[in-house]
Amino acid sequence: MTINRRDLALSTLALSALALTTPVLAASAEEEAVAKKVEAFRLAQIAADPKALGALCWDDLSYSHSSGKVEDKATFITNATDGKSKFLSIEYKDPTIKVVGPTAIVRFHWLGEQEMAADGKKVSTNLHILMNWQKQGDEWKLLSRAATKL
């Protein structure tokens, strides 16, 4: 079998193209996996589901509210599911996800409305959210969250 320069160049070009596209495809698959976890988190917040929220968060979670209050995992889950308020809606607008190794940086514009159990008063929230997710084995878990009022 004879290999000429043209065949060698085409083989090299094909291998180079494959090497360049493989990380992009892997990053897209990881970004999609993170996006699914982010949506599961949003739904768990609306449902005030402590089991689902617990499964999505690291044990060392740092959850920061726009008021400056910072909660650990146990406190966040207790306060998010205590029934003192009920989310009527939560929308994560314009999300961006960037996967960097075993970490994902997620940003979005939060629009929410909740109803207070004590008096039925409705409260709207307009926030910018930063979430950091980290891969634990094959699962993505929320490591930290910070909110800023808009």
Please give a structural write-up.
Residues 35-142 form the DUF4440 domain. Residues 1-26 form the signal peptide. With 150 residues, this protein is α+β, with helices and mostly antiparallel strands. It has one domain (5-149): Nuclear Transport Factor 2, Chain: A. It has helices spanning 5-47, 50-56, 73-80, and strands at residues 57-64, 70-71, 85-100, 103-116, 122-136, 139-149. Strands 2-1-6-5-4-3 form a 6-stranded mixed sheet. β3 (85-100) and β4 form a beta hairpin. α1 packs antiparallel against α2 (50-56). The longest helix has 43 residues, at 5-47.
Index terms:
6 strands, Nuclear Transport Factor 2, Chain: A, globular, 44% strand, 150 residues, 6-stranded mixed β-sheet, single chain, alpha+beta
In short:
The protein is of the alpha+beta class and 150 residues long. It has helices at residues 5-47, 50-56, 73-80, and strands spanning 57-64, 70-71, 85-100, 103-116, 122-136, 139-149.
Topology, please?
Blueprint: H1 5-47, H2 50-56, E1 57-64, E2 70-71, H3 73-80, E3 85-100, E4 103-116, E5 122-136, E6 139-149
Parallel strand pairs: 1-6
Antiparallel strand pairs: 1-2, 3-4, 4-5, 5-6
Helix pairs in contact: 1-2
Biggest beta sheet attributes: 6 strands, mixed
Q: Order of strands across the biggest sheet?
A: 2-1-6-5-4-3
Outline: globular
Order of helices and strands: HHEEHEEEE
Number of strands: 6
Please identify, by name, the CATH architecture: Roll
User: How much helicity do the residues have?
Assistant: 25-40%
Low-confidence stretches: 8-25
CATH topology type: Nuclear Transport Factor 2, Chain: A
What's the CATH class label? Answer: Alpha Beta
Number of helices: 3
Structural domain count: 1
The average pLDDT value, as a whole number, equals 88
Based on secondary structure, the structural category is: alpha+beta
The proportion of residues in beta strands is 35-45%
Kindly provide the radius of gyration, computed on alpha-carbon positions and rounded to a whole number of angstroms. 21 Å
The termini sit apart by 68 Å
